[in-house]
Automatic annotation (TrEMBL):
Domain of life: Eukaryota
InterPro entries to which the protein is assigned, alphabetical: Epithelial_Barrier/Signaling, NIDO_dom
Protein's organism: Halcyon senegalensis
NIDO domain: residues covered: 34-188
Protein name: TECTA protein
Length: 208
């Protein structure tokens, strides 16, 4: 796994491009993009990541991921997790104090795998290299969010990607929790709405 500064977690090779493209991408390029954009941590913010088998974290993830399955499915019980957080990151060419905070969580039990994307604060969409305004961080070619399996078949573009509406993903969800998107990726299950019969679980919290 590689955590790229530009808001992407990739498998095998890095993703140096700061200009987002819609999925699917040509060639074998599997990666998860919580917010693929022209992030510039030199102007503010940090990127943190870790892998964990901590029982408390995994138990909390089990509750969070339960929202992505129906009541007839077993509750996810991950045994491993990888968490990458972009905390209060700025954009290239920024002439403002606008920052974004978002997160990607990968979780698996060795058979069933999920990707969870969390959005805490989104204030900008575009750096100046992508024709964004340096003062507003808006305009030009906005960020892309979703995942790309690398097989040209299984992928998902979160609605609003590469448009000004990408800022709205913090208020929307496919599991009924604003700012949270969960995908089962071993079967490449990607939905825009919560399951018709979601499992009962406590209200999820941001994974940190």
């Amino acid at each position: 796994l590689q955590v790229n500064n530009n808001g992407v977690v990739s498998f095998g090779t890095g993703v140096p491009e700061f200009t987002p493209e819609p999925f699917p991408l040509p060639g074998h390029r599997p990666f998860v993009a919580p917010y693929w954009a022209d992030v510039d941590t030199r102007l503010g913010g940090d990127v943190f990541y870790r892998q964990s088998r901590d029982p408390k974290l995994l138990a909390r993830l089990s509750q969070d991921l339960a929202l992505a399955v129906t009541s007839s499915d077993p509750t996810p019980k991950p045994t491993w997790a990888f968490v990458a957080t972009w905390h209060r990151v700025s954009y290239f060419g920024a002439a403002s104090k606008k920052v974004n905070t978002f997160q990607a969580v990968l979780a698996t039990d060795g058979f069933t795998s999920f990707v969870m994307l969390n959005y805490q604060d989104l204030q900008w969409t575009t750096g100046i290299s992508n024709q964004g305004d340096p003062h507003s961080g808006l305009g030009g070619l906005p960020a892309q969010a979703g995942f790309n399996s690398g097989d040209d078949v299984h992928y998902y573009n979160i609605p609003g990607s590469r448009s000004p509406a990408v800022l709205d993903i913090i208020r929307k969800s496919n599991v009924g929790v604003p700012g949270r998107w969960i995908f089962r990726v071993d079967e490449f299950t990607a939905t825009e709405e919560p399951p018709s019969a979601p499992s009962t679980s406590p209200a999820p919290r941001k994974t940190t």
